[in-house]
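Ticket #538: bound-state structure for zinc ion.
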Amino acid sequence: MKCQYCEKPATFHITELTEPDGPQVMHLCEEHARGFLQKEATTPTASIAGALAKQLNLGQTKQELAELDQKECPVCGISFFEFRNTGRLGCPFDYTHFSEDLIPLLTNIHDSVVHIGKRPRRAAAADSHAELIQLRREMEEAVEREDYERASEIRDALHRIEEAGSTEQNASGEEE
Amino acid sequence: MIRDSDFDDLAHKSGEWLRGTGPESDIVISSRIRLARNLADFPFIRRCSDEDRISIERTIRAKMDSIDEWREVRYIDLEQLSEIDRQFLVERQLISREIADAEGSRAVAIDPREQYSVMINEEDHLRIQVMHSGLDLKSAWQSIDELDDKLEGAILYAFHPECGYLTACPTNVGTGLRVSVMLHLPALVITRQIDKVFRSMQRINVTVRGLYGEGSQYTGDFYQVSNQITLGHREQDLVALVGDDVVPRIIEYERKARDFLVKQGQQDLHDDVSRALGILSTAKKISSEETMHYLSKVRMGVNLGLIEDVPVGTINKLFIHTQPAHLQKLQGRLLGSSDRNVERATYLQCHLSGKLSDGELN
Ligand SMILES: [Zn+2]
Ligand SMILES: [Zn+2]
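RESOLUTION: The complex was predicted; output attached.
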């Protein structure tokens, strides 16, 4: 038997004992088995796919889901379709932009949608950071289509925000 | 921090978490906690351009350099590292397989005692992890909480008032906390109770994963218990769920099974573990699966007092040091798999054969 991830023979057989659908066996070579054991407990893509499938059963029609798939984050450009396929979000702003769409998913995974644990002492002003991410992406896109004028405009805007941000950070640092 | 790419010295020693000294260390190998964190002003890794990754690495490195207490911390650029060196750090559990196999700018900062490491540009911008020997989650949580505060003093994290710490994958959002305890449960395996024990735990938000060798012939008897959810509970409560509730129950079952084995078949058991030690200390070539299988038996023998003179720390160390990249680092050259089997046997012999008394050989 070959490893599920490469051509080497599968010498380790790892059983996930607590998968919701009963025990699942994975066949892996030595190297992948070691990596797998150190990895996260559940494979996120699988659990997200599972949670989304449940969501679909719970009343979302195919058409509604198709519309949701088209929805894109204005900051990083990721579509809900891409997120669904990879199990990974594109930027911190996605939690705001897809907020309503993520609620059923978070409920399925965590049985909760509100964080009650630790909080950082310095809170980031979310919007200005989203703007930074967005501008950097727009700059790259401008460079790609060789619109250097637009790219340098964005670069100047970026510098202004970054400078404002760093003085703001210094100020808050001195307060402590 | 010390920028470093040469860590041959690591191959000759082992991390503190392997010492086998913490609470319940006859059953619990290690307690690990990790926190996932991201910078507020960059996209998550999958949507990062090469330049973004470089900026993230540079930003975090500069901030870490400004932490006074971190003067002794080693900083390793993983992009520049050879595959074998990355593999070595994976075996050492200082980095993940994902970051080893990834591409682009990425790095790890490692504490000299190997009790904590911080990965940069893994699935999240920052993955902080703390490892302690035995069942020691409370102090591991304290350490990682302090580490997190220190980094937060220098880095602005992506945080949302309702969702908590924002992560690339929604399975980590909120606390970003994953608690994992590695358990050695040979008696539950031998008495065939292991599935029953874990089935009874299915609905309490923990994940259990076991490692089996080929067929049923080789078993390492190691199991990892982790929290499944990260949102909606305080960090201390997630730590307590695993450390005060689930793991102590499993430990109790394992102890009962060990008692049963000792009472039922002292001689058979003694024979079995002594043979295992015999094979490990006399074989001329041995695969890593076989090594794991027999080391597991020997470890149980040591913990039940059936094998004397072999410290459990030595056994723990052998589990790591007989892995492929460690063997090759120790030899200072690349070895094919059959050469490794020979080298592994030599290494085991040299660390175990002196400990064999004549009585055990007969
Ligand atoms: Zn493989
Ligand atoms: Zn986004």
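RESOLUTION NOTES: Confidence is low (pLDDT under 50) at residues 170-176 of chain A.
TICKET STATUS: resolved
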